[in-house]
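To fix ideas, we close by showing one paired sequence and structure record:
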Amino acid sequence: MTFGSTNNPSTQSNRSSANSGTSDSLRIGLFNAENLFLLFDHPVPLHYMKLNEAQWQALSGSVYENKALPKCIQIAQIIKGELPDIMMMCEVGGLESLKNFNRLFLDDLYEVALIEGNSDRNIDVGFLIKRDRKLTHILNSHKERPLNFLYPHESLSKKTGYPIKASTQYFSRDCAELKLTKSGEAEPYLIILLTHLKSRLDPERIDPGGTERRTAELRTCIDIYKELSFKHPATPIIFAGDMNGYAGKTNTDVEFAPLYAETDLQDVLELANLSVEKRSTFYQVKNNSKVEGKQIDYCFVSKHLVEKIKPGSADVYRYKDEFGFVIEQPRNLDDKLRLPSDHYPLFFTLEKVPV
């Protein structure tokens, strides 16, 4: 089975035209591409699109397996179909991988912005910025910003003079800060914060569900948001990423409560009045039979942007087959493994942005 927007060239052209940004609009996307590693130790042949998977993997000697060739093609089809001006990417295998993906599969349509973070899996957050929009931007990293957080056993170690594990004091990945500015102007007209919070995995059995660490990371993201809001009070801000938990407005996981208690941030899918079922960006397959859909990928916008979201533009992309029909949610693990990623991307359009 193959995936993509559709095999009908005229339909794809119409969609691309409709989604591409006008002079005062921005099409924004968010996608956890699931281990997007593209690292090569051998020259990539001109006919790389026709390689079988064994030949494709043989181009790399890295300990990280390259993203499967068909899945790279499928992800590129989605991005080319939606044509976002800014694509926020999670789980990218470093700057080299994102550059290779842009060059090999996106016809170099985008500028690449990524600062490698703290991940022990070498998965980072980064941006694809459409070249023809000529968006002047500055990228900063908060990977070295302390979380002011210690696990209980680390606090005890600190009290007794034992060394502590420094990595727990910083983001699992990063909170990347992208500022869009007009040429010659210091004040940004849009700021994007992109993160990938601590997962629910707890191999060391010290933080069930990763909740304590994720709470500290979310708290630090909010602190960064507040500081930027104070410094740039007229500048709208997007806070987005793989939150690894339910951060919706109702029945919110406890670690995300400060989003609603302390900020003006609102979820674009909530603003679009999508049903909870249609907001699912991740499907958890339990015991290879029970499937639970949930939203764990979010784009939050500050009050300045609420009225700028184009009506009907915010949605979660659903993977499609070779005939353009939506593929139903995975019924089991095999279905899920055939998808381009274990997450679904989401897109929305901002209007009347002073680009």
